[in-house]
Every structure is written in structure tokens, then in C-alpha cells.
Amino acid sequence: MESEARIYLDNAATSFPKPEPVVRAVTEYMTQCGVAAGRGSSRRATALDGRIATGRAALARLWNAESPREILFTFNGTDSLNLAIHGCLRSGDHVITTELEHNSVLRPLRMWEAERNVTVTILPPEEDGRISPARLVSALRPHTRLVVLTHASNVTGAVQPIGAVGELLRARPDVLFLVDAAQTAGHIPIDVQQSRIDLLCCSGHKGLLGPLGTGVVYLRASRVSEVRSFRQGGTGSQSESLDQPSDSPDKYESGNPNAAGLVGLAAAVEWIHVQGVEAIAARAAELVGQLYEGLSANPRVRILSPDPALVPNAGVISFVVDGIDPRVTATLLDAHFGIEVRAGLHCAPLVHRSWGTLETGGTVRASVGPLTTATEIDALLTALLMITTAM
Amino acid sequence: MESEARIYLDNAATSFPKPEPVVRAVTEYMTQCGVAAGRGSSRRATALDGRIATGRAALARLWNAESPREILFTFNGTDSLNLAIHGCLRSGDHVITTELEHNSVLRPLRMWEAERNVTVTILPPEEDGRISPARLVSALRPHTRLVVLTHASNVTGAVQPIGAVGELLRARPDVLFLVDAAQTAGHIPIDVQQSRIDLLCCSGHKGLLGPLGTGVVYLRASRVSEVRSFRQGGTGSQSESLDQPSDSPDKYESGNPNAAGLVGLAAAVEWIHVQGVEAIAARAAELVGQLYEGLSANPRVRILSPDPALVPNAGVISFVVDGIDPRVTATLLDAHFGIEVRAGLHCAPLVHRSWGTLETGGTVRASVGPLTTATEIDALLTALLMITTAM
After folding, report:
1. In total, how many domains does chain B have?
2. H-assigned helices in chain A
3. pLDDT surpassing 70 at residue B1
């Protein structure tokens, strides 16, 4: 398998390949450093802590956070979302979210609904695949505590109007605005001030191009007292106290960090800064346009993502081939053409319910990264033509 | 720094170096595989899932679990302990634990005590640094739900009588027995059946020799219904449901696993099986004996660990040098001799309270791993002699 040409179009699950400095950072850490982070005072530990602090600062800069202390490291996107959701909800709260969300939002909320007296309003998208900011805001209640909105659907790629929602939420300073940036962090620009975001959650291994085992939360400094810690334990600080520290980031970062992952993530975010996230977004838009056009030209293909010429897309296109189970399409692409895409529900069941794809195996999803090429998109389109001609 | 001789004696924080197959597995994953685990159906994803399943089975075998499904993967030892503690406690419960515990046990328990009407009994160790099983069991109350006991103190290394405690707890099947194996997993044999353990928690990157960003929980199958999920989200299974799956391990493994870490961990546990955990334990005992004897011969050194000839030790010795702050000792060892040890409280404050080392900077801690040599121990002893002669 290693010797055959490989076309990886599942960057919405995890990005591959990683930029070379990322792999080098991990390997160097494992072979030459190897110490625990945030706990020691040896020269290697001090240098490692400095490197991780650089990554924290680079992320703060990427999203226009006011301070690196607003950047929390976790272990994956789901861990980030659980930290955020479980941290801020209380019995009796009302939450607004959408049908576009991933199970990493829907399942924690369902748990609060089922067990802890929280009510959840789940809004459908409009015809164009986007949430209406006005409709969202009209669902606010006096005891609404939290709005959770994905920045882009992991099934359709449609970018959601977080800026407009954030702007409207300025009238409700008591409401926490949580944005799930799983599909947009590193892919498209994000400004937490401009979009009035209180909590931004993502993994470190998708668009941020870091290793698996890393996740990130932006938590606005003024909200720290409203968000409980998710994990309590050793923080390498205030060790004499049995109480969890109350300051960010230590309040939220207990236990040994994934140091190998975090030095890789630091290198990755620096690579993104050098490329420029606007340039990365522009390239992805081109590739997604090419993919959408090509798929539109195939009469057997039904595309479920909105036209990226009309609705900005974070690099993800979902489609089905008439008469072929999505899982079969994906298997054929992998087995005969060396093309890796994803088939299924993509852990976002409610999107499929409204499309009627919940009981038919979901969709085929192709997703690009900053190292994807136009030639690779062409190869996918050609392969699909061959499949639809043959079957 | 890279060119000078390096002596790493901080294996209780994280082990270094890792066996060569561990580094190779991580590098190969990052450069050649790169796909997400547990979510896809491509050939690479299937092979990866198989590799991770092998690691799960190897861990089940290591601890005599009845099924690999009883092995849950987390992201570090603290994550494992939080999963266990937050999963099983309910308002009104009573918990028994000890002064030997790490803050990753004490701080979650303190939170339950402060906010959720849980009472916690914290037992001191006996003169020999061990918890008395009889005293522990006499602290049981009718509503005791959980006993949390470290298998070995991360400050003293003293191995605790988990087998005797487990045996006595057979009379109380309503009580969950949680063992913190942070310092013993991979270091010394553990049998969850023989010791009647319900939950065993550890990191994957200490004695198990895997990469950082990995943790492990053993959860007895019959207890799954009593332990809530800690993180809810996408599991790659039952994606059509908004409810978290109720089966183990999916119930407890939401979000993208640290695939790079888990293939490294699988390679590490296989390496441990080849060496034999008994052989690893015997080597560590020799080294710790050598260290204890050598330190005893230095009149300026006060050893806080019990004599390993009398109390089994998991590979950790704590000491202080009269008249020198532990942090200064550690810095001198690092700067002048290239020896990395740890100084401080080691996130276990209550141990220091009883020794009077809480306000004096804690202890110097030296900890061995399976790749530590007798020559390295000699180098530490010689360096300490030079320091105590010069200062």
C-alpha cells in the first residue's frame, strides 16, 4: 500500500500530510527531549515550556485573542467541547444550538437535557444550508445561558454567519457564545473580538495541522469565573493546595500535557502564519470550486453541500452517487484509485435527517487541506466518472 | 546540550528514552499512515484500528482483564482518574482515600466535597509509609461508594497493599475499588482479578513506555452501568443517536483518539511483554536498592522513602540534602552533571505535610525506568557526594 500513489481527501477528519516541520518537531521531541512539560526546572524542561508557550502565543495571534492565557490546550476537539459545555452549564439553563452540529456538541447537551434539567432548542438551517442569525436570536429566552454554533458544518462545509450572530448577541452579555471551529480553525480567518466569541473550540490536528492528541479552547479571560474546570489534578502550580487553581490556563490544564503533540502544534501554527490563513482559505476555495463544478457535471452525482460560489465553504463537499451506497463509493475509491474519502453520517445525524440520507448510509465526503492539489481533485472526479460509467 | 552525556532519572514524571519500536511506530504513523482511527473504512483506517485493538488486548493481558473491552483509552493519567472519579460519584456518597494520593485524585475529590455533598475520609500511612488495610476497611461506612488507593506513592515509591485491601473489600460488593497505578503500570505485576480492582487508572507514558498524550483505564465490565461517561461525542458508532453509546469502550472514548500515541503505546506494551514485567520489576528493585544504599552512605542526605529492602518500591526514591534547597540540588545536578531529577512537591501535598517538607521545597526525587543503568545510579551518587563536599 505504501508504494502506490495516494490521494488523501479526508482532511475534515484529520489533516494529512502534516507540514514537514511538524513531523520533525515530534520526532526531535521523542528522541532528544522526552521530558514532561510544565512540571520540571531542568534546562530541557524550561526550553520545552518556552516552546509550548510560543505555540500558545501563536494561536492567540491567529484568532486575535487578548492574551495567550486565553488559549487552553486539550486533547482533541471533543475534549475541547466537553470542557466548554460541561464547564458553563447549570441546572435550569436554556441552550440554543443547531441541526448542523456534530455529536460532540449534541451528545453532551443531550446528557444535560436528560439528567440535569437543561432545555435545548435545536434550530434547522435555512434553504441555503446556513443558520439565520435573526431566527437564532429570536429563540433566546431570559434564562438562555449558552449558544453553540458550528463555524462550518463538517458534512456540508457551509460556513455559518458567526460574525452576525456574535454581533446580535452583544445585546445579551449574560449569554455565552460558543463556536465550534473544528472545520475552520487554520482554514479560514477567525477573530474572536470581532465575532464576540466567548469560547472557541477545535482540535489541533485538523486545519491547525498539528498532531493527533491535541485540542484547543479559546476562553475569554472575563469568562473564566463562569466556566468550571473539566479535569482537576496536578497542574505543576500551587501544588500545596487541594483546590484546583482558579487562574487560566492552569485551571483547565491538569495532568501531563501531550508535549510531543504541542511542540508539533506550535510548529504547525507557525507554518500557518507563514503561509497566511487568508492565502490558505483562498486556495481551499479554489479547490472546492473545482470539486463542486466537476461533481455538478456528473449526472449521477447529487451534491448536498450548497454551491460554494454562493455560500462560503470551509473545504468540505458532501455528495451521493445515485444508486450506489456511499460506503461502496468510498471503498471503490480507496481500493481502485488510492483515494481516501469518508462515507457515513460523519457523526452529525440531524443534518442527514432533513436530507433523507440518515437511512441510506449518509454521504460521501471529500475534504481538502492546504497541501491538496488541483491534480488530486481531478483524479477524484475522473475516478467518479469511471465508477458511474461502470456501475 | 544534545552532545553532552545525559542521565535521565525522572521516569516517574514520564519515561525516557522510549524503546526504539515506540519511536518508530509514531514516526511511521505520522509519515505514512496519518488517518483518523475508529471512524473510517479505508484500508489504512482498518489496519490502524487493528493495530490499536492489538494494544488494547496486550493491556488486558498485562493486567489479567477478562476482555479487551475493559480497557479504555484516555489522554493522560489525570484524564483516567477524572473519568473514574467523576463517573462513579453521586451526591451523598462517602469516599475513602489516603494522604499518599496525587492531586489528580485529591483535587477531583475536593471538588465533590466542596460542591456536591460528598464526604471524603483521608487516611494517613503507617510508620513504614504504607496504608494499613485493616484501618482502611474500618473507615468504611454504609454509604461508602468508592475507595481510591495509589498502588505506589509517586513521592516515596512505597508499594501499597492493594491485594490485601481488595481482598477485604470482597465483603462490600457495593464499594468500587479504584487503584491509581500511575507509578506501577508496566513497572510491577498487577492482577485486577486477584486484587478485586474495579477501576485501574494510569498514564500510557510512564511505566507503560508509550508516548505522551495517552492514558489507560481498566473498568470491570460489570461496573459499566455504574460509571457515567466523562466525555460525550462522536464515537464512530451509533452515529444516528444523540445519546452516548452505553457499551464499553465506546461509552468512554469520544472524539478522535491519539492514534499516533496509541500505536506507540501498543508497541510499548508488546515490548514490556517480551521483557516480562517481573524481570522489569526485578531490575528496578536492584537499581533502587543500589540508590538507597548509596544515599544512606552520604551523611548529608536524609531519605524519605522507606527502605526498599523492607517495603517494596516501584522505582522512586525521595530525599533531601541537609542545608540545600531541593530545587537547588536538582538544578546543580542538571547544570553540572547532566543528571535530570525532579524537585518539589510532586503534586502530592499531604505526604509532605506529615514529613515537614511542605514549606521547605519538598524533596529531590530520583526515579528509574527499564532502561536505567547501574552506572547512571553511580553517577548520581558521585555527583551528590561532590555537591555535599563542595557546599
Report:
1. 3
2. 20-28, 43-63, 77-88, 103-115, 133-138, 162-169, 259-275, 277-296, 326-337, 349-355, 374-390
3. no
C-alpha cell at B90: 453521586
Establish if B2 belongs to a structural domain. no
Q: Is residue B17 pLDDT above 50, yes or no?
A: yes
Kindly determine whether residue B30 and residue A34, on different chains, have CB atoms separated by under 8 Å.
no
Contacts of A149 (CB under 8 A, 6+ apart): A97, A98, A131, A136, A160, A162, A165, A177, A178, A179, A180
CB nearest B213 (choices: A27, A203, A258): A258
With respect to residue A185, please indicate whether it lies within any of the assigned structural domains: yes
More confident residue, A240 or A60: A60
CA distance A99 to chain B (A): 11
* Residue A357 forms contact with B (CB below 8 Å): no
B46 CB neighbour count, 10 Å cutoff? 13
Q: Do A41 and B327 touch (CB under 8 A)?
A: yes
Q: Which of A27, A43, A212 lies closest to B258 in CB terms?
A: A212
Domain range for residue B349?
276-390
Q: How many Å lie between the alpha carbon of B260 and the closest alpha carbon of chain A?
A: 7
Residue B325 near residue B312, CB atoms below 8 Å: no
**pLDDT(A2) > 60:** no
Which of A275, A305, A337 corresponds to the end of one domain? A275
- Stretch among B35-39, B51-55, B370-374 having the lowest mean pLDDT: B35-39
CB contact under 8 A, B13 and A2: no
Helix (H) or strand (E) holding A340: strand A339-340
pLDDT of residue B285: 98
Rounded mean pLDDT, A128-135 = 97
Say which of B243, B258, B349 has its CB closest to residue A75.
B258
In this prediction, residue B4 has a pLDDT band, given cuts at 50, 70 and 90, of: low
Instruction: Indicate whether A221 and A345 sit together in one domain.
Output: no
How high is the ipTM of this complex? 0.96
Q: Residue B239 and residue A27: Cβ atoms within 8 Å? A: no
Closest residue in chain B to residue A25, using alpha carbons only: B27
